[in-house]
Each structure stands twice: as C-alpha cells, then as structure tokens.
C-alpha cells in the first residue's frame, strides 16, 4: 500500500476506508460524527422532556414514556455524546500536540470506536422494543424489577461501549508515555494533552467499577443471582456504591479535557503563555485524585450516618481549591493579553462565569446537611447542567471551532458561530438558572407532571422557552458544519497564530502527520520558533522511511460480534433460540480476536523517495 | 526492521520484549490494563465482603470450604507462576525450546488448577445444593471466584494460541513482547488468587 492507494476513489472506497481505518485523525472524524448524532438524539429527548413540563399537568407524553425519556437523555448524553466527542477531539489533537505519527495502538483505537458505536446503537434499538426507564443511574431494586427488556439494553449497551472506552484510555496513556517527540518532556506538554493523560487515568481506574456493577445487574436480571435481592440476603446499596465509584470520576473524565481545551485556547487568543502552567498541571492531578475520594456525596440521604457523610462532604469541598486555582489562572492568562474575540473565544469566555456558578452550587450540595433539602430536586438538575453544559458542552463547542480547521481543513463561518453561541448561551441560562429556584421551592426531579398554582408554573414555562433557544443554537451550528463542508473557506496550516505543535503541520495533516519528527525546545514549541524568527519547527531526525500500520476490518467485525451476542444475552430469558445469537456472536468476536492474534501484521513503510516526491 | 528474522545469540538484545517501540507499547499497555483489572477485582472483592454472611438461611462458608483442595490449587498456581518465570529466563537467553517447554508446564499446571476448580464447584452444587442462585453469598462467591477462573481460562487459550502459532518459527522481536505480556498477565492472575485464598477461603473457614 502506498500513498496513492489511500486516496479516495469513490463512495464505496470512502466508506470502506472509514470502516477499516486505523488513522487517529479519521477515527476522530468517526467519533465526532457518531457522537454528534447521539448528541442530537439526546437533545431531542431533552426537548421532549421540556415540552412535557411546559405547563402544569401536561399530557404531551405518558408517564411511562417520560421515564424512558429521562433515562435515555441522561445515558445518551453522558456515555454516547459527551464522552465520544471528547475522545474524538483527543484522537484528533493529542498525537499532533506531542509530535507523534499515530497513537500507540492504532488497531485498538479503531476497536474502541466500534465498540462504543455498537454500544450506542444497542441502547437506542431499545426505542423499538421498550426503552430503559430506571433513570440513568439505574438504582436497584427499581432497575432489577423493571419489566420488559429496557434495562437489559441499558446494561448491554453500556457494557459494550464501556469496554471500548477503557481501551481508548489505555491507548492514550501509552501514547503519551512512550511516543512524545524528542524534547517533549512531561512539563512541556500542552494542557489538553495533560488533561487527556489524566482523564485516561480516570477512565482506567473508574470504568472497571461500572463493568462490575453492570455484570451484577446483568446476573440479577438475566441469570437469577441475588446481589440486589433483599429476600435472599442481597443489598441494593452495593449498586449505588459501584455506580458512583465509577460515576463521580466520570464527571471529571468529562470536565478535565474541557479544562485542557480552555487552557489551550486562552493563551492562543490572548497571545500570552498560560499563567501558572505548573499549578495548572498539579491542580489537574489533584482534582483527579480527589475525584476518587468523593463518590458517596451522591448518597448523603441513603443513611450512611453523620460520620461518613462529613468525611465525604469535606473531601468534596476540597475540590473547590484546585478548581479555584484553575479559574484564577485562566483569568490571569487573559489579564493584559492582546485578546481576539471569535467564536472559540466566546465559548471559552462564557465558560468561566457559567462553570463558576455550577461550582458554587456544587459546594452547596456538598454540604451534607443542606443536601437533605436539595437531594433529588431541580436544584441538583440545575447544578449538574451548569457544570456539564456550562463546562463540557461549552468546552466541546469551543474546541470544535478552534480545531475544526485542523481536523477538516475548513474554517467555520464566524457569523453563524456567533449566532449559535449567543442563542445557545442565552437559552442555556434561561433553561437552567430558574431551575435552581424551582428546586428550592420543592420541585422534585424525575416527576412527569407538576401541579398548578404552586409557584412552579412560570419557572417551568421560562425553562422550556430556554430549551428552544438552545435547540436553535445547535441547529445553527449544525448548518455551519455542513456549510463549511460544502463551501467553507479553506484553512491554512496555522489560522489562529497557534503556539503548539498541531499548528506546525498542514490542515488537514497528511496521514503520517510529521514528515520528520519535530525537535521541541520548550513549552509552546511553535511559539518559541516563531519568536526566534524561524517560523517552523526544526526537525529532530533526517528524512527517512516511515512505518505505518495496516488498515483492518477486524475491529468492526469483532464489535459486531459483541453486538449480536448482546441480543442473545437479552433474549435468552424468553427464547432458547436466542442462544444461537449469544454463542454465534461470541464466536464471531472471539474468532476475530484469534485471527488478530495469529495473523502477523507488520504494517508497511512509506519510503523516503515517496515522501520526497510529495509536494510540501 | 529486524522483526522478520529469527534471533541468534549474537544479535539478541538484552530485553527482546522491549527492543522495539511496538514491544515497549505492548509492555506498558499491559501494565495499565492490569491496573484496570485491579479495580475490577477490587470491586468484586468489595461486593463479596459485603455479602459473605448473607446466606439467607442456607449454607455458610464454614459449612463447605475444605482447605485441603484449595491449598493444592494455590500450590498449583503459585508453581505455574514460577515456571512462567523460567520460561521468560530462557526467552532472554534466546533458548526457544526451553521456553516452550516451561510455558507448556505452566499451561498444564493452569489446566490442572482449572480442573480442580470445576471439581470444587461441582462438589458444592451437587453435595450441598449451594448455587449461584441460592443466596446473595452464593452469587458473590461464584462471581468472584468464577471471574478469576474465567481469567485463567482466557490465559490458557492465549498461551495455547501463542505456543502453536510460534512453534515452528522460533523467537523474534515481533513475538517476544507477546510471550512477555502473557507472563505478566499470568503473574497477575496468580496474585489475585492469593487474595482469593486469603479473603474467601481462609477468612471463610475461620468464620
């Protein structure tokens, strides 16, 4: 296979290329498209929830469908929208930022994507047979006794995609440890790479707890075990512990990469190096560490007792310290800078106050005594939407505007970018700010109706109006994305006056990224070369052959095998014929593993001559 | 690239498993994977400890555990860890035949261990009517020990595939990391068993 063979030939070849690709930049495209699709589904579910709550005792949807809607909205947004889009951004940018030609395990990278994708499809197939309705947290015994197969789809969908995420995490960890360019020491890595590294560590140590929790739930529902069955000595609180031992680090898996994104965008558009780089790195590590110590603050009202509650309350409040360090460092990066305001910067600037509000309410709900009042009310809904939308979604949108030229070779339209920002930003605060007060007035979460004249009517009405503003903003962004694809302005290699390595190579980068690995001489390596008048990176090696991995269809087939086996697991409780799916699917998956193991795959080389022939 | 050629003692690097970037990546990746596995087993142990007295009036751990068989199983698995070290020692000395021999011994010991475990489970089910479904203790016991047994089974399949695939071509820089990562995985399984022996069987026997 040569460079010529990888060029597009037709629609079939294009699809085949994406099915088999092991190139981190193409896998990033897959993550962004699939994650974006699930984001639209989750958004649609959110909109339906808000329409149901627009007026008291509304009957837009039934109570049962409402339960399915809230469960699917939460599950989809966390696992199949926010995480994959962030993994897509990491894939697109992190290897470029450390000056690597690819990730450590290109094959596993592809496998991780396809497992996530089939997990997401699995979950959403449930819309046709009855969706899960036990909430995204699936607390036992509600989840163990939920009739039908909805919760089964939840279990299998998350189990399959979770395995993919774990592989992605390990892959990024090894890539960052082993494959940094010459001179790229740890303390010269851009903050987005750092947060990718730390978030991957969190994935590694948090996801197995979910895996076990899901197995126990699966065994109880499908194979008659008694983990959560009190009559046989089971204990339903175990699920809550396992879920939150995973679930709390999960929110840092989401927010830390967003922190990294802002930490890269502010220096670029303020034309100043990041204020307090070292403090930023250590604050990230500290947040990650504390993130594992606080899971039980989701369980203050379970009855763990005042002693345990106090410990978890104090540990939770301690997280405000490193987070505060970060907020001040961003402000001081901007201080005195030569600031450019564009779409990416607007999302970043809007993030600071929005996230700070979410952080402040976080301290409020962390106070375990006061939490008895807030627990399971709209106050909590408002809190976590402020941190997840105000933090993660703003971060994703900032990153998309910032790295779009690098990922797709086109610049997003600024007017549409600003229109999308302002409508979404206003809609976001309209939707969620009022929910703090709805919660304080006693409106519980997860109820499909509320009564008239209890002071909740106006607030809910305003909240739903806000949701329509956000929808409009998302649609404008979507149009902008499609517009840029059709007739967007071609992007130069370095459209923003960038500081880090990804801006030192063409947009989009060639499939081998760096013709010669760059020599890194400090933090913000490209900026150093610019200030010293070189304008481009000094190569660290002579031009030579480049070793590349081969494409493979095996990841797709293996994931398909697990997908088929998933249906077997779900339906073997009803029909013996489902065992055919179960064993057939597992045979396909394990057989693919065996083929991968037995068949040598040495990859191929792009020769020096081919590289020389290519025009720069 | 030298990965197509078999190694001879002269060209052999000191650590063939870490001589290539791919090898170093595999080595580190497996260590990270074991980190995740640690959390997996920690969660299972936590669940077991929470439920070990939840017998719902059925058989309890003191009624059924026989330390004799479990001690034998412990010895089998510990020895297999040792023999896998011998295999790695011969790999570093580029003695492929002896490496295969000791890997074979490792596999046989693992297989015997698995046989004992199957016998043990059958014994509990047939003689004591103690099953996965009989109580929360039963569910937790079979899940924890069964997950370990599943890991042993997966390791045996992995080992068999590696040994058969490479039987005729000897050692090279492409397959050395594969053998080495297997041995790391095998040690990990062994360590988990030490904890199972202590937490499940010893603590279960003395009550």
TrEMBL record, chain A:
Catalytic activity: 4 Fe(II)-[cytochrome c] + O2 + 8 H(+)(in) = 4 Fe(III)-[cytochrome c] + 2 H2O + 4 H(+)(out)
Known pathway: Energy metabolism; oxidative phosphorylation
GO cellular component, one term: plasma membrane
A single GO BP: oxidative phosphorylation
Topology class, membrane: Multi-pass membrane protein
Keywords: Cell membrane, Copper, Electron transport, Heme, Iron, Membrane, Metal-binding, Respiratory chain, Translocase, Transmembrane, Transmembrane helix, Transport
Localisation per UniProt entry: Cell membrane
Official protein name in the record: Cytochrome c oxidase subunit 1
Organism for this UniProt entry: Ornithinibacillus halophilus
Automatic annotation (TrEMBL), chain B:
GO cellular component, one term: plasma membrane
Transmembrane found in the keyword field: yes
Annotated TM spans: 28-51, 63-89, 101-121, 141-164, 184-204
UniProt xrefs under SUPFAM superfamilies: Cytochrome c oxidase subunit III-like
Record-linked InterPro entries: Cyt_c/ubiquinol_Oxase_su3, Cyt_c_oxidase-like_su3, Cyt_c_oxidase_su3-like_sf, Cyt_c_oxidase_su3_a-hlx, Ubiquinol_oxase_su3_dom
Entries under Pfam families matching the protein: COX3
Domain Heme-copper oxidase subunit III family profile: 28-205
Membrane topology: Multi-pass membrane protein
UniProt-recorded name of the protein: Cytochrome c oxidase subunit 3
Native organism taxonomy: Bacteria, Bacillati, Bacillota, Bacilli, Bacillales
């Amino acid at each position: 296979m040569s460079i010529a063979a990888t060029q597009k030939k037709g629609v079939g070849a294009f699809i085949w290329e994406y099915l088999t690709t092991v190139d981190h930049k193409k896998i990033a495209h897959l993550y962004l498209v699939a994650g974006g699709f699930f984001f639209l589904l989750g958004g649609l579910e959110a909109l339906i929830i808000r329409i149901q709550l627009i007026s008291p005792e509304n009957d837009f949807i039934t109570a049962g469908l409402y339960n399915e809607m809230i469960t699917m909205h939460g599950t989809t947004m966390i696992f199949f929208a926010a995480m994959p889009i962030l993994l897509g951004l990491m894939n697109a940018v992190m290897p470029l930022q450390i000056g690597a030609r690819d990730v450590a395990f290109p094959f596993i990278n592809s496998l991780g994507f396809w497992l996530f994708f089939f997990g997401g499809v699995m979950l959403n197939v449930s819309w046709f047979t009855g969706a899960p309705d036990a909430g995204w947290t699936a607390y036992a015994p509600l989840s163990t006794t939920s009739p039908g197969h909805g919760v089964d789809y939840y279990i299998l969908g998350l189990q399959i995609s979770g395995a993919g995420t774990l592989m992605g995490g390990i892959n990024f960890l090894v890539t960052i440890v082993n494959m940094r360019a010459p001179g790229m020491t740890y303390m010269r890595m851009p903050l987005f790479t750092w947060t990718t590294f730390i978030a991957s560590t969190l994935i590694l140590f948090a996801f197995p707890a979910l895996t076990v929790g899901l197995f126990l739930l699966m065994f109880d529902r499908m194979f008659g075990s008694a983990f959560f069955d009190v009559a046989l000595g089971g204990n339903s609180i175990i699920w809550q512990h396992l879920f939150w031992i995973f679930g709390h680090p999960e929110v840092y898996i989401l927010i830390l990469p967003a922190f990294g994104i802002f930490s890269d965008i502010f220096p670029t558009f303020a034309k100043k190096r990041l204020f307090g780089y070292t403090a930023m790195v250590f604050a990230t590590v500290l947040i990650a560490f504390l993130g594992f110590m606080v899971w039980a603050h989701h369980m203050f009202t379970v009855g763990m007792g005042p002693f345990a509650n106090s410990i978890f309350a104090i540990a939770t409040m301690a997280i405000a310290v490193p987070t505060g360090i970060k907020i001040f460092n961003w402000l001081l990066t901007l201080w005195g800078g030569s600031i450019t305001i564009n779409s990416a910067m607007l999302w970043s600037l809007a993030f600071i106050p929005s996230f700070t509000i979410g952080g402040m309410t976080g301290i409020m709900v962390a106070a375990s005594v006061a939490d008895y009042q807030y627990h399971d009310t709209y106050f909590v809904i408002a809190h976590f939407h402020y941190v997840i939308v105000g933090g993660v979604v703003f971060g994703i949108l900032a990153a998309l505007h910032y790295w779009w030229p690098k990922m797709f070779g086109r610049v997003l339209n600024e007017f549409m970018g600003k229109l999308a920002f302002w409508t979404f930003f206003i809609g976001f605060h309209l939707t969620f700010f009022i929910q703090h007060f709805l919660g304080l007035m006693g409106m519980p979460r997860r109820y499909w109706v509320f009564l008239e004249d209890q002071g909740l009517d106006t607030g809910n009405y305003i909240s739903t109006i806000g949701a329509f503003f956000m929808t409009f903003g998302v649609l404008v962004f979507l149009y902008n994305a499609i517009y840029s694809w059709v007739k967007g302005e071609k992007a130069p290699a370095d459209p923003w006056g960038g500081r880090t390595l990804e801006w030192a190579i063409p947009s989009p980068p060639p499939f081998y990224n760096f013709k010669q690995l760059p020599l890194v001489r400090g933090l913000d390596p490209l900026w150093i070369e610019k200030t010293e008048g070189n304008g481009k990176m000094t190569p660290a090696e002579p031009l030579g052959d480049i070793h590349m991995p081969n494409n493979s269809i095996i990841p797709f087939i293996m994931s398909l095998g697990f997908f088929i086996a998933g249906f077997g697991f779900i339906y073997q409780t009803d029909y013996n014929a489902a065992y055919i799916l179960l064993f057939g699917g597992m045979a396909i998956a394990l057989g693919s593993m065996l083929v991968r193991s037995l068949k040598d795959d040495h990859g191929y080389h792009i020769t020096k001559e081919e590289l020389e022939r290519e025009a720069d | 690239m030298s990965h197509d050629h078999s190694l001879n003692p002269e060209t052999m690097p000191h650590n063939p498993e870490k001589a290539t970037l791919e090898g170093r990546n595999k080595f580190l990746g497996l260590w990270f994977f074991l980190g995740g596995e640690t959390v997996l087993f920690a969660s299972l142990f936590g669940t077991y400890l929470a439920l070990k007295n939840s017998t719902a009036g059925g058989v309890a751990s003191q009624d059924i555990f026989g330390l004799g068989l479990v001690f034998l199983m412990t010895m089998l698995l510990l020895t297999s860890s040792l023999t896998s070290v011998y295999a790695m020692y011969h790999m570093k000395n580029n003695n492929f035949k002896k490496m295969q021999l000791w890997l074979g011994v490792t596999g046989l010991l693992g297989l015997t261990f698995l046989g004992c475990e199957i016998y043990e489970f059958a014994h509990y089910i047939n003689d004591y009517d103690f099953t996965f479904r009989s109580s929360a203790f039963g569910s937790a016991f079979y899940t924890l020990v069964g997950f370990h047994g599943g890991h042993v089974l997966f390791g045996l399949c992995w080992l068999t595939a590696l040994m058969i695939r490479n039987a005729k071509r000897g050692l090279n820089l492409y397959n050395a990391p594969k053998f080495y990562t297997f041995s790391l995985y095998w040690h990990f399984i062994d360590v988990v068993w030490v904890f199972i022996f202590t937490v499940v069987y010893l603590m279960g026997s003395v009550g």
